[in-house]
Specification:
Helix content: 40-55%
Largest sheet: 3 strands, antiparallel
Number of helices: 5
Order of helices and strands: HHEHHEEH
């Protein structure tokens, strides 16, 4: 497996100021739709959670991910590829195994996009 150049969407804070801040333009909506489509599958959502739960800078070996599912290794690899293509994770091969990690700031940018501004004095 070779390292691929991935376009990480939402790196620029101006890209996605927040769902309630301003309407998205076509490009912003298309970029975010890729991310949400990747996360819209239960297997990919679980994989993302397993990788992200290692914390910032943490990584997980594919050998730890595959046994958690009743799916073949090629199917797990396909789901991981889609998460990489969406700009959510990256990986590196080390010998026999591939290690995955969440790209820095990705989850924070998604959270910021989904967060709505609370009026002063309002409670959730």
């Amino acid at each position: 497996m070779s390292k691929q150049e991935l376009e990480v969407i939402g790196q620029d804070a101006a890209c996605c100021p927040g769902l309630s801040a301003a309407p998205l333009d076509e490009d912003q909506a298309a970029d975010l739709a890729k991310v949400f489509k990747a996360l819209g599958d239960p297997v990919r959502l679980r994989l993302m959670s397993m990788i992200a739960s290692r914390g910032e800078g943490g990584e997980v070996c594919v050998c730890e991910l595959t046994p958690a599912f009743e799916l073949s290794q090629p199917t797990i690899s396909h789901h991981l590829k889609l998460l990489r293509q969406a700009g959510l994770i990256d990986c590196e091969r080390r010998g026999t195994w591939v290690y995955y990690w969440v790209l820095p700031g990705v989850l924070d940018r998604l959270a910021a996009f989904l967060t709505t501004a609370q009026p002063a004095g309002a409670t959730a």
